[in-house]
């Protein structure tokens, strides 16, 4: 006997009327019990009503798995009311992870062949929603037959089901490929839209289909031209634009067909210009069509004038009141800035205005684009705008803004004084947000500019006297005062305002930095060293400095304590040497990358020649960093001990070392190149240890955009041992700036063929990139 239960409408009202979650659960549990009882009693007349209530319960997040088999029974029912609820339940309760979904394959096949349009539509919707790869293979021919149906309703759903099948099983492309060209002659917009979507899916997944459909580019151009030229249609026009959905889909397909193909691009250039100039832009529908047009122009081999037109459209988007449109414009211009730099430069004032957007996503995109627009001709004006933005930007943008200004100043600085002033302004405004290398770069810059020593020390002293909370500024100022503090007392400097400073004031400022709770241990170390150097540059301050060193000799910070104790020894035991030891640092010159690379290689070779051969426990510490490659066996093979030989690294102290014959140089190898970023490998095998290979990886950047956050990781098979040294940096300046070098030490005791797997991660052109590739073509000299 079936227990009485609520109707669907009554159930919804009762659930909505529940005042607490407990009341709602009580109502649902009670009704689910009624539904289970009805399913057990097998009431065929009310089964679809019970399942409809169960589906509503499922939509609220409650378990409804016990209704899966009832879905299968309703789908097999001859009544349409049962099939409708059964197919809906299958779409909601079944998926590929459950074997029960395969049981409806025969029911769907029978319904597709019945010829009843509503039933065929239900079956196609279910297949395109939850059809697995097995179902798609079994039913592909049935769906293909429906392409020839006279009803547009069935054909449209069959085409969309084919799209799902191609995504699940790409090898089914050959079944649907011949019919697509015929469907392009359809005048029904729904069928055309589905056909364009299917062709797009085929072209993205099959190079053969891509070559095949490049022949229909003129036909696609004609369809789009007809849409653009057609007048207002009540059925298809939206905001004055004729079927924007179909236009957008055709433009996406044209973008795929014209990419890296000159002939297809030439055929669509005139049409793209027509769409770009005739599309109404007062509503969002027109903006969507224009944006797709711009993306297509950017990706194909378009004419120069057409690309300028695309940039101008994006410039108009920047003036739109809709934030989403402005964000899309900024992102697209960032992609175009490298290829069409002069065209994007015309919109620089509008881009700079976007820096003041209250929306953080917009201001961040505007900052990235503004930094990309900086060049040698506008560096002063752009830096002034960026410095103004740095003073008022949110804290989460200060680090990116400060780093961008410093990189731009290093690349395009017109004079050294301007470069120093720019860095000082950044350190004063957002010093705590700059990277650590900014301190070293500024000290290097000041040390090289001998004519600006007096100017720099006065500017830094004044900035430090106003604010000691900016730690990078305090560190650079302490270093500069320690080196050139005597220039503070020499009177006025022509390039700065007159500044009268006494020795006591300088010492008091450094002591203030030492005692400040805001100072980091590294900052205190700079200040302590500056005080020590001033003891030889100022007269009559030795006792005061000695007293400070004695106090910090018992500091809790071990680094400061050790430094103060060592400085204290100068006063007690080596006072006669203090002046000579604390002389000014010599002028520092930046070495070329090649010299640094050779020095690194020679240093590494010396270390390997003089160091003892690693024992078994020491060798086991050199673990594979990524474990991306598997060795020939399951167990890790440790390298055997290397036997000492007269020509090896372990030479008796009283023996004369044997000089091994010089090895032939190993040719360099380029292993990666993309968008101006190159990675080259150079090889050295130390004569003392033939099983050891030193590889220097050198990354260079010849593009017009900086490469940031560059990380190179390597892996070797398990019968090798790999050790990665720290890289020389993580930023590659554009246009052939300083490269990044990294040393790899590989131990190959078995002289097995060497192969590497490299993983590169970096940011380039505003996008995060990760590349993983294997290097199998290493020279034979690296392992034989």
Automatic annotation (TrEMBL):
Family per similarity comment: Belongs to the adaptor complexes large subunit family.
Keyword Mitochondrion: no
SMART domains from the UniProt entry: Alpha_adaptinC2
Domain GAE: 664-779
This protein's UniProt keywords: Cytoplasmic vesicle, Golgi apparatus, Membrane, Protein transport, Transport
UniProt protein name: AP-1 complex subunit gamma
Topology of this chain in the membrane: Peripheral membrane protein
Subcellular location: Cytoplasmic vesicle membrane; Endomembrane system; Golgi apparatus
Region (Disordered): 591-616
A biological process term (GO) from this entry: vesicle-mediated transport
One Gene Ontology cellular component: AP-1 adaptor complex
